[in-house]
Design a protein that fits this description.
Layout: E1 2-7, E2 11-14, E3 18-25, E4 29-36, E5 44-49, E6 53-56, E7 60-68, E8 71-77, E9 84-86, H1 87-98, H2 105-111
Antiparallel strand pairs: 1-8, 2-3, 2-9, 3-4, 4-5, 6-7, 7-8
Length: 112
């Protein structure tokens, strides 16, 4: 199980096509917004209390483990084939993918 702390407004990216945002935190419950990564999809809102789970797909489960003020500790169960990232890390990964690859003179010489 991957364990992450999230604050209100912060998101997780599951796979390449699903985001889960922490919308609101109350004493014993949280409100999550689940939506596709594309900017135009509308979120589905769900409320969960501490120790409750949110099941996504057949094999991804998000557990609400603890609430501490405006922070929530979430546990995510997913197969290794499905990536789970904090949104800020996911954006860095995408940026690295889109950067052009440059080779040194030595690297070019090795290619022939």
């Amino acid at each position: 199980m991957l364990i992450l702390m999230r604050k209100v407004g912060e998101k997780l990216v599951i796979g390449d096509d699903l985001k889960v945002e922490l919308i609101e935190v109350n004493m014993n419950s949280v409100r999550l917004g689940v939506y596709e990564v594309d900017e135009f999809s509308k979120p589905v809102f769900v409320n969960r209390e501490v120790s409750q789970v949110l099941e996504l797909f057949d094999d991804v489960t998000i557990h609400v483990l603890q609430i501490n003020g405006r922070q929530v500790k979430l546990g995510i169960d997913a197969p290794r084939s499905i990536s789970v990232h904090r949104e800020e890390i996911y954006k860095k990964i995408l940026a690295e993918r889109s950067e052009p690859i440059t080779l040194s003179k030595r690297g070019l010489a090795m290619l022939g």
